[in-house]
Amino acid sequence: MRTARRAVGGFDVRIGGRSVATALGNESQKANPKVILDLHTHSIKSDDGRAKVQNYCQWIRAKSVPIDGFVLTEHRQFDFESDYSELASKFGITILKGAEVETEYGHVLVFGVNEGLYNEFDFTTIGLSLENVIEKCEKHGALAAPCHPGRPRVGMVAHLEEHGIPNGVRIVETKNGGSRGDEDEVAAKMAEDLGYLGIGGSDSHIVSHIGRCATRFPTTLATEGELVEALKAEEFEAISNKQ
Ligand SMILES: [Zn+2]
Ligand SMILES: [Zn+2]
């Protein structure tokens, strides 16, 4: 046990090609249990994404981007087949998977996708019912959060007048790395007015944008299930690293 603990401090010690710091990541993080995740990213799996997941990892390390990991939220799909665990181990970066779906209130991030949820509605379509997405997420232990709500057309604020305030929203993305003009201010104002909590994500489609915005959690967090738990615990903070 002593030997193992000593090894945690040495970040270059490797066992079977896997860094000890990664293998014992939960233990080493206990000393400083704050995890910063970029909750909104796209890879080449998304039709308009140009970044490979490996390149995101390389960029994060090369530029010391201040995040511990990221969630791939590909457009209108859930990527069941890709396994990023080797990359995650190699770079010591948490890589989780989610989705970005399209509703009558605009785009919505979904965390904690599983087969049960995937069979409840058609991820590939546009114009899903937000309330139905939220309800089905609750049923299957997932969580839905409208993203870039201040953006024209594809953000929630633009649709409030027509559709009214939807039931079930608790969290919205208040800091988005791709926001222009006052989009984040519009999002923050809505969140304040309606009592929503805010998360942050870069909405990166190219490597250099990863980590522009992120979310800080007070707990350790290594799986999609733990991410949903951490979001439901409602103790997190949206942060921006935009220059
Ligand atoms: Zn979007
Ligand atoms: Zn997006």
Total E-strand runs: 11
CATH architectural designation of the largest domain: Alpha-Beta Barrel
Q: Which segments are poorly predicted (pLDDT under 50) over 5 or more consecutive residues?
A: 1-30
Report the mean per-residue pLDDT as an integer.
89
Describe the structure in your own words.
- Helices cover 32% and strands 24% of the residues.
- It is α/β, with parallel strands linked by helices and 243 residues long.
- The protein has two domains: 1-31, no CATH class; 33-240, TIM Barrel, CATH 3.20.20.
- The strands form three sheets. It has a seven-stranded mixed β-sheet.
- The longest helix has 12 residues, at 183-194.
- Mean pLDDT is 89; it is low at 1-30.
- The chain binds zinc ion (2 copies).
- One zinc ion (ZN) binds next to loops.
- Residues 100, 107, 147-148, 154 line the site of one zinc ion (ZN).
Describe the structure using short key phrases.
7-stranded mixed beta sheet, 24% strand, 32% helix, two-stranded antiparallel ribbon, 243 residues, 2 domains, binds zinc ion, alpha/beta
List the topology elements.
Layout: H1 2-9, E1 14-15, E2 18-19, H2 20-23, H3 25-30, E3 35-41, H4 53-62, E4 69-75, H5 85-91, E5 94-103, E6 106-111, H6 115-118, H7 130-139, E7 143-146, H8 157-163, E8 171-176, H9 183-194, E9 197-201, E10 213-217, H10 224-232, E11 237-240
Parallel strand pairs: 3-4, 4-5, 8-9
Antiparallel strand pairs: 1-2, 3-10, 5-6, 6-7, 10-11
